[in-house]
Design brief:
Distance between the termini: 37 Å
Number of domains: 3
Structural class: mainly beta
Radius of gyration: 37 Å
Helix content: 10-25%
Length: 459
C-alpha cells in the first residue's frame, strides 16, 4: 500500500482573557506564546507525544493588579491530553488551576496567583486519538492569543505561534523508511503486524529482543534426517546418488546422456496429490546439487498428525545420502504461537513418515531423526521399515499416490504404473522405486517386498 505522508494542522487554540471589566485605563497586559515544539516528529495515529511552548506573561508591573487574573483556554482537535487531572506541566503550571472538559475537549486554566514578568516553558503531553486516520483535515498546531477587550479596546486574533508535524497512519513500510523504533513505541497499532514477514508479530519480536524489520531472526533451524529404502545401500549404510551424480537428471540438471530428457527445474511436488505451491526459490531451483544429494523430499508441519487440514507450514528440501535434509529456503519462518507440531515427511514414490509425537518448537528449532526410531504408526498401519543394521527407512514402492484414497498404499496401482514404464531409462519418474534412473526389475523387487504395506497418515 502506498502511504502518503502529509502535514496538516492540529488546532491548538489558546485564548487568554484579562478579567477586569472595570479597567479604567489602557491595560498593557499582552501575554504571548512563542517557540511551540512537538517532542517527536513524525507522529503516528494513536501515538503520544509532548507539546511544549514558551509562555510570556508580559505584565506591566504598575498595572499587574489591575489586569490579573488571567484565564487560559486550550481547545484540542484530534488529540487528547495524556493527563486530564493535571494536563499542563512546566513553568507557571502551578500558578493555574486546571480543568479538562471532555465534552468540548478543552482545557480551562484559571490563574490562582500572580505570574512573574518572565518567560516560562509549559508542556502538554497528548495523544492523537485512535479513531483519527491520517491524513485528515485540520491536523497540526495553531496557538491563538486573545487579549482582554480593555487593552485599548482591541482584540488580537492573529496567530501567536504555528507548528507543523507529519501525521501518518501505522504502516510497516513507512515505519521502516523513517527508521522508526517500533519496540520503543509499543503499545501501538503496529504491535500485531508482522513488518518483516517472518511469521512473528512485532510485539513478540520485541519481547524476545528481535528486530521487527529483520526476518533472519525469525528463522527456524532445521535438523531433520530420513532414509529412502529404494536408494539405500546396505554396504555403505548410506543412500546412492545415481539420479544426481551418474545420470544428472535431478530437476534442472543437464543430463549426462544426450538421449535423456532434462527434468524441468523446481521441486517435484507441485502436481496432485501434493499440489504444493512452493516458494519462488523452490519452484525455480535447478542446482547446483552437491555430490551427496539423493533426491527431493517434502516436509509438512501439522498440529494434528491425523488431520491434513491442520497444516501450518510446508517446505521442500533435498535429502543427502546420509539422510540429512537441507531446505531450499535459507530461512523458515513459523508463527510465534506455534510451540509444537507434528512433522510429516513425504517422498514421491515412498510411503511417508510422521513424528509420533508433536515436536517442541519453543527453542525455534525443528529437530527430528526418522532414521533412529520408528515413526508414527496409527492403528493397523505401518510406520517405517527397520533394516538389519537397526536403521529405519521409508517403504519404497508407492509410485501411484493419487490412487491412494485417504492414506498411502503400496498396491496393484503402483505395480501397473511400473509395468507401463518398465524398460525406460534415464528417467526421473515415480515408477523408478530404486532411484537409479531406470525402470527395471530392481523396482519390481522392491514393490513385491512391500506390496500391501500402507500408512494411515491422511493426505
Amino acid at each position: 500500500m502506498t502511504n502518503l505522508l502529509l502535514s496538516f494542522f492540529l488546532l491548538f487554540s489558546v485564548s487568554l482573557f484579562a478579567q477586569n471589566p472595570g479597567c479604567s485605563f489602557p491595560c498593557v497586559n499582552d501575554p504571548s506564546v512563542q517557540n511551540p515544539q512537538i517532542g517527536s516528529i513524525p507522529l503516528y495515529n494513536g501515538q503520544g507525544s509532548v507539546f511544549t511552548f514558551e509562555y510570556l506573561d508580559n505584565l506591566n508591573p504598575y498595572t499587574e493588579e489591575e489586569c490579573a487574573p488571567l484565564t487560559m483556554v486550550i481547545c484540542l482537535l484530534n488529540i487528547a491530553p495524556a493527563n486530564t487531572q493535571q494536563p499542563i506541566g512546566g513553568a507557571f503550571a502551578a500558578n493555574f488551576t486546571w480543568m479538562y472538559d471532555p465534552v468540548s475537549n478543552c482545557i480551562l486554566g484559571t490563574q490562582s496567583e500572580d505570574l512573574p514578568n518572565t518567560v516560562g516553558v509549559m508542556s502538554l503531553p497528548f495523544t492523537i486519538t485512535n479513531n483519527v486516520s491520517c491524513p485528515k483535515n485540520e491536523m497540526g498546531l495553531v496557538i491563538n492569543i486573545q487579549p482582554a477587550a480593555c487593552m485599548n479596546g482591541q482584540n488580537d486574533n492573529t496567530n501567536d505561534a504555528l507548528s507543523l508535524y507529519t501525521c501518518m497512519d501505522w504502516d510497516c513500510q513507512v515505519a521502516s523508511q523513517n527508521n522508526t523504533d517500533i519496540c520503543a513505541l509499543s503499545p501501538s497499532p503496529l504491535d500485531n503486524l508482522d513488518c518483516d514477514g517472518g511469521g512473528i508479530s512485532n510485539i513478540d519480536e520485541c519481547a524476545s529482543g528481535g528486530n521487527p524489520f529483520d526476518p533472519s531472526d525469525d528463522c527456524f533451524a532445521v535438523d531433520v534426517k530420513v532414509l529412502l529404502e529404494g536408494a539405500f545401500d546396505p554396504v555403505t549404510q548410506q543412500m546412492t546418488t545415481f539420479l544426481n551424480t551418474d545420470r544428472s537428471i535431478l530437476p534442472g540438471q543437464v543430463p549426462a546422456s544426450p538421449l535423456a530428457t532434462p527434468t524441468p527445474p523446481g521441486h517435484p511436488y507441485g502436481t496432485p496429490h501434493w499440489n504444493y505451491v512452493g516458494t519462488a526459490a523452490e519452484n525455480s531451483y535447478g542446482g547446483p546439487y552437491s555430490n551427496d544429494i539423493t533426491d527431493w523430499v517434502l516436509l509438512t508441519l501439522r498440529t494434528d498428525i491425523t488431520d491434513p487440514t491442520t497444516k501450518v507450514a510446508q517446505m521442500a528440501g533435498l535429502v543427502a545420502k546420509d539422510g540429512q535434509v537441507t531446505l531450499i529456503e535459507d530461512c523458515i519462518q513459523l508463527p510465534a504461537s506455534l510451540t509444537a507440531a507434528y512433522l510429516v515427511l513425504e517422498h514421491r514414490n515412498h510411503l511417508p513418515a510422521g513424528s509420533p509425537v508433536a515436536i517442541d518448537l519453543s527453542s525455534r528449532q525443528l529437530t527430528w531423526d526418522f532414521t533412529a526410531a520408528q515413526s508414527y504408526v496409527g492403528g493397523a498401519g505401518f510406520g517405517q521399515k527397520q533394516l538389519p543394521g537397526g536403521k529405519f527407512v521409508l517403504f519404497a514402492g508407492d509410485g501411484d499416490q493419487i490412487a491412494d484414497i485417504q492414506g498411502y498404499d503400496i498396491n496393484g496401482s503402483d505395480n501397473l504404473l511400473w509395468k507401463a514404464s518398465t524398460g525406460l531409462f534415464n528417467v526421473y519418474g515415480a515408477p523408478d522405486f530404486s532411484l537409479d534412473g531406470d525402470v527395471n526389475g530392481a523396482d519390481a523387487i522392491l514393490w513385491n517386498g512391500n506390496n500391501g504395506i500402507f500408512s494411515t497418515i491422511s493426505k
